[in-house]
Amino acid sequence: GIQVEQSPPDLILQEGANSTLRCNFSDSVNNLQWFHQNPWGQLINLFYIPSGTKQNGRLSATTVATERYSLLYISSSQTTDSGVYFCAGSQAAGNKLTFGGGTRVLVKP
Amino acid sequence: GAVVSQHPSRVICKSGTSVKIECRSLDFQATTMFWYRQFPKQSLMLMATSNEGSKATYEQGVEKDKFLINHASLTLSTLTVTSAHPEDSSFYICSAGMGAEKYFGPGTRLTVT
User: Fold this and answer.
1) Interface with A, mutate which of B44, B69, B91 (most A CBs under 10 A)
2) Tens digits of per-residue pLDDT, A59-68?
3) Which of A6, B68, B73, B94 is the most buried (most CB within 10 A)?
């Protein structure tokens, strides 16, 4: 199966700062998602982005499918952005998602 | 987006007993659901794929006789942890897909004493 590597593993930000999280895949994926896991454990869907660029408020994501990586951008970070960010991918639409190790983000006021 | 629910959200049971966790897709039908387990400060690890009307597919290293999965309808999958032991204590999360995008339930925190 595919391997998913996320970097950095931990990130400490001052409120208002911008940051970039990266996700690398060992093989091509046809489906790619970014999630934010809140303190209660709920996974919140951020982006479904097998290719291209999407933006949602202060968050945006870019996937370069041919180079097997995806980036998540957080701009003007807020304390509520704290939590763990996961990327996950699969090689077919109905297939199981394989998760990366996550990036633990702490935004300080 | 689609909504996936889980019940219970938290359960404490004694060693040797069995626990059933329900996963429901509330506003869509799901022929396939997925069960994950997450230990503290770790990522999600897939346990099994639940297929409506047929047997579940388990990942390598997951005991199918210990983690019984039933997917009896297009909106409900259940995971039963049989003869639970303290090492089964974990956060269990289910997932279902609407199209290619997957949605996750809020999770069930299992503590075995």
Assistant:
1) B44
2) 999 999 999 9
3) B94
pLDDT of residue B99: 79
Most A-contacting residue of B42, B71, B104 (CB-CB within 10 A), to test interface: B104
Hey, is the C-beta of A100 within 8 angstroms of any chain B C-beta?
yes
Beta carbons within 10 angstroms of residue A18's beta carbon:
11
| Class of residue A9 by CB neighbours under 10 A (exposed 0-12, middle 13-18, buried 19+) | exposed
Chain B CB within 8 Å of residue A57 CB? no
- Tens of pLDDT, residues B24-83: 999 999 989 999 999 999 999 999 999 888 899 999 999 999 999 999 899 999 999 999
∠ CA B47-B53-A33 to the nearest 5 degrees?
45
What residue has token string 């911008």?
A18
Interface contact B107-A98, CB threshold 8 A: no
Q: What is the mean pLDDT of chain A?
A: 96
Rounded Cα–Cα distance for residues A93 and B97 (Å): 9
**Cα separation, A22 vs A69, whole angstroms:** 7
